Amino acid sequence: MYDGDIASVVISEDRIRARTIELAAELAQRYQPAPGKDPEEDLLLVGVLKGAMMFMTDLARALPIPTQMEFMAVSSYGSSTSSSGVGRILKDLDRDIADRDVLIVEDIIDSGLTLSWLVRNLEARNPRSLEICTLLRKPDAISMQVEVSHVGFDIPNDFVVGYGLEYDERYRDLPYIGLLDPKVYC
Ligand code: PRP
Ligand code: MN
Ligand code: MG
């Protein structure tokens, strides 16, 4: 539907779905609910707007355990001169996460700046636990000081879009991850 803008399919809709089910099983194992538990003990998914929205909603539906959802929007203006990834909160969580099991849900970790900043920000709010689940991870993220417990796919350093990922706010609506044709941004 975007004519020739997508050079190839990198991860098909079927592969995303299959991997999401695997991740959901892994997470259900990790966050086994105790019988008769308090709703405050439900796993709290924190989706990072806007990129994570597709993965977040599909992951939540694939998870066989109760979850609650929160969203955050951050702008990272990490410059090449600073590795601190200083961020700004555009939309904060609606509630307190103290003593909660929190899982940050991301579409992609590229430089890792967004997530390393976000982890430090959320850690300061004293969650019971804080882990990360990302659909995609690029090689540069390896240098990041943050442990990522749940990764869908490790991908090469190519410009990918779709399934939440954009270029100039377009292509988020594609149901698969595609390689953006360089003619679009050159
Ligand atoms: C993208 C992506 C991740 C982040 C990864 O979000 O969705 O959140 O960049 O990059 P990093 O690891 O180098 O920090 P973006 O800030 O473009 O906002 P969006 O989710 O609204 O597209
Ligand atoms: Mn994002
Ligand atoms: Mg973006």
Automatic annotation (TrEMBL):
It is an enzyme of class 2 (transferase). Pathway: Purine metabolism; IMP biosynthesis via salvage pathway; IMP from hypoxanthine: step 1/1; Purine metabolism; GMP biosynthesis via salvage pathway; GMP from guanine: step 1/1. It catalyses: IMP + diphosphate = hypoxanthine + 5-phospho-alpha-D-ribose 1-diphosphate; GMP + diphosphate = guanine + 5-phospho-alpha-D-ribose 1-diphosphate. Residues 26-167 form the Phosphoribosyltransferase domain. One of its GO terms (biological process) is guanine salvage. Its main location: cytoplasm. GO terms for cellular component: cytosol. Its cofactor is Mg(2+). Coiled coil: none annotated. One of its GO terms (molecular function) is guanine phosphoribosyltransferase activity. Pfam families: Pribosyltran. Its EC number is 2.4.2.8. It is found in: Cytoplasm. Keywords: Cytoplasm, Glycosyltransferase, Magnesium, Metal-binding, Nucleotide-binding, Purine salvage, Transferase. This is Hypoxanthine phosphoribosyltransferase. The gene is hpt.
